[in-house]
Amino acid sequence: MTTIGVDLGGTKVFAVRAGSDGAVMAEAKAKTPVQGGPMAVVDAIVKAVAELGGAGGGDDELPVGVGAPGVVDVERGIVHAAPNLPGWTEPFGLGAALSEALGTRVVVDNDVNVGTLAEHRLGAGQGASNMLGVFVGTGVGGGLVLDGALRRGPTGMTGEIGHVVFRPHGRVCGCGGRGHVEAYAGRAGMERRARELEAKGHDTVLTELAKAKRMTSSVWAKALAAGDRVAIELLDEGVAALGQAIGGAVTLLDVDLVVVGGGLADRLGSSYVARVGQAARAQVFAGHRVEVVPAKLGDRAGALGASLLVT
Amino acid sequence: MTTIGVDLGGTKVFAVRAGSDGAVMAEAKAKTPVQGGPMAVVDAIVKAVAELGGAGGGDDELPVGVGAPGVVDVERGIVHAAPNLPGWTEPFGLGAALSEALGTRVVVDNDVNVGTLAEHRLGAGQGASNMLGVFVGTGVGGGLVLDGALRRGPTGMTGEIGHVVFRPHGRVCGCGGRGHVEAYAGRAGMERRARELEAKGHDTVLTELAKAKRMTSSVWAKALAAGDRVAIELLDEGVAALGQAIGGAVTLLDVDLVVVGGGLADRLGSSYVARVGQAARAQVFAGHRVEVVPAKLGDRAGALGASLLVT
Questions:
Q1: Does B252 lie in the same domain as B284?
Q2: Is a pLDDT exceeding 70 seen at residue A80?
Q3: Residue A105 phi, psi dihedral angles, 5° rounding
Q4: How far out from the chain centre does Cα A269 lie?
Q5: Are residues A132 and A248 in the same domain?
Q6: Checking phi first, is residue A292 left (phi over 0); if not, alpha (psi -120 to 50) or beta?
Q7: Do A80 and A142 fall into the same domain?
Q8: Claim to verify: residue B133 and residue B35 sit in the same structural domain
Q9: Is A254 in contact with B288 (Cβ distance < 8 A)?
Q10: pLDDT band at B199, cuts 50/70/90?
């Protein structure tokens, strides 16, 4: 069945027309509107869908799935908190607004959930009964497949491995919590710490490579390749944080496959994922087995997973 | 429906004849045989079942559920590793042996799983869709109910919260691992540490209260009541370990109810469980809600849960 999947990100909207086998027939990209709040986002998505031939006004509109950042009420199509979307300060019924504008069925879920779904059905987790998806980028997100089905849980926030505590009373996380995995392994947390260390006199090429901009995944990769001590130390800590949290998740859940993706993990590649796997296995309870493998779908996982919501 | 439930422990066999509503009609107790290995255990269980009127040789034998320590293959009725059962060094088909001896249907599961099942169906977790059961005694066990059903997972070892890492490279756990929750919060781990501290010159009433025996839950309760510094400090660490692991489990699984039982938790009572709850909530990701409540069934949870395996 052909459907449309939309990955709604903080900076861009990426949409695909795809078969349920993951074959992508067409793509559309747009910038996420920085003004106008949720209604401007609705317009941007409607345009992208139209570009894919999905909103012609006929009787055979393609159904649309959307992966959105933040907390999503899947049943009602409401995106509650979305700190990464400009002007999205109140809960908004994205599903209903899009469905009305497009005249078709629309399902909205959290972006990490749809990424996990995509890796499970079409990527590195194909055929697995149980899988933890871990996405390492600006932050660290996670999603959980148990007994073949995506677990959403009562609040829709299952799999939040980025906000598991790694070091009690440790670094402040973007969410305000203390010592969370994301504060150590996510790009934003590592950047904050790198700038602190430089301000304290530690020598690092990270700020130079980043220039006036953010420290992208490429910046980290280059600093590592250059043997930068600060970059190496921060990455080591991130690997330790992910390893401890994944090890705990495996011990608790008896999940035997962990798929690691996201911008930073994709850029640093299989050696990074292998190190995370090694750290995780060192902390797994005897008797549990776990494979930790790189994600396969790259930055298409979100849109593809969204397209699967409506197949 | 009336069934028989057997709690097979390291020191005693406790069996009940019970209705599926948890009403206990009769009880039988026996010592776990210290010699003769698995076949002696089978004999002891057969006797206990006969005492309950469950093995008269007629056509209407009551089905029997068994909760056994260690790793259990539920489908095949095999108890693999059972370090707490004397002479149980090889995997043994307890289900088949009992079924043949009793002429009835027998289901065997892990003791912590059946305790969790009992608290979920008949105890503090009644009606909950999602529940984590945590049992704090000599060790720390855990079981998981997700979407109304006990999760067993691919290895049958789901919910092993006692073996989640609390402090990397920390105290050695009974399982040989490092820094596990059980090494800090379980009675055996706390006792080992208390004896170490005393050997190092710390003043404590724990060894005196225990005399030449183990530090039972009552010993800990008395030492706490007496304001013993070592006991207070070790209990504090145990609460912190449980809090961190439970907080992580809630963040990861979106489980909103945690039931805390087991010999030590039962003895220390609701104030102990409340402190564990407070520690857990302090580490839970914003947006998750969790109630941490005392178990209700005490040391009958195992036998009652076992009886539920065959209803």
A1: yes
A2: yes
A3: -75, 135
A4: 16
A5: yes
A6: beta
A7: no
A8: no
A9: no
A10: very high
Residue B121 in domain: no
Mean local confidence (pLDDT), B120-125: 98
Q: Kindly provide the b/e burial profile for residues A50-71, where b requires at least 16 CB atoms within 10 angstroms of the residue's own CB.
A: ebbebbeeeeebbbbbbbbbbb
- pLDDT at site B232: 98
Find chain B residues with C-beta within 8 A of A252's C-beta.
Answer: 142, 144, 158-161, 164, 248-249, 252-253
Count how many domains chain A has. Answer: 2
Residues B81 and B35 in one domain: yes
In a domain, A121, yes or no: no
Report d(CA A10, CA A32) in Å as an integer. Answer: 6
**pLDDT tens profile B37-90:** 999 999 999 999 999 986 655 556 899 999 999 889 999 999 987 777 888 889
> Is B241 near chain A, with CB under 8 Å?
no
Co-location of B97 and B167 in the same domain: no
In a domain, B90, yes or no: yes
Question: B157 to chain A: nearest residue by CA?
Answer: A254
- CA–CA separation, A141 vs A136, rounded Å? 7
Please indicate if any CB of chain A lies within 8 Å of the CB of B84: no
Question: pLDDT of B231-258, one tens digit each?
Answer: 999 999 999 999 999 999 999 999 999 9
- A274 at B interface, C-beta within 8 A: no
C-alpha B304/C-alpha B17 separation (Å) is 9
Residue in B closest to A151 by C-alpha:
B253
A228/B contact by beta carbon, under 8 A:
no
Minimal CA separation from B211 to chain A, in Å: 33
- Domain of A137: which CATH number? 3.30.420.40
A245 touches chain B (CB under 8 A): yes
- Chain A CB within 8 Å of residue B127 CB: no
Which region among A57-71, A233-247, B144-158 has the lowest average model confidence (pLDDT)?
Answer: A57-71
Task: With CB atoms and an 8 Å threshold, state whether B283 touches A71.
Answer: no
**Are residue A291 and residue A166 in the same domain, yes or no?**
yes
- Across the interface, of A81, A147, A252, the residue whose CB is closest to B159 is A252
- Residues B72, B83: contact at Cβ < 8 Å? no
Assigned domain for B122 exists: no
Q: Is the pLDDT of residue A159 over 60?
A: yes
Range of the domain at A136: 127-295
Indicate whether A275 and A179 sit together in one domain: yes
> Chain A: residue nearest B169 by CA?
A283
Is pLDDT at A57 greater than 60 in this prediction? no
How far apart, in whole angstroms, are the C-alpha atoms of residue A177 and residue A255? 26
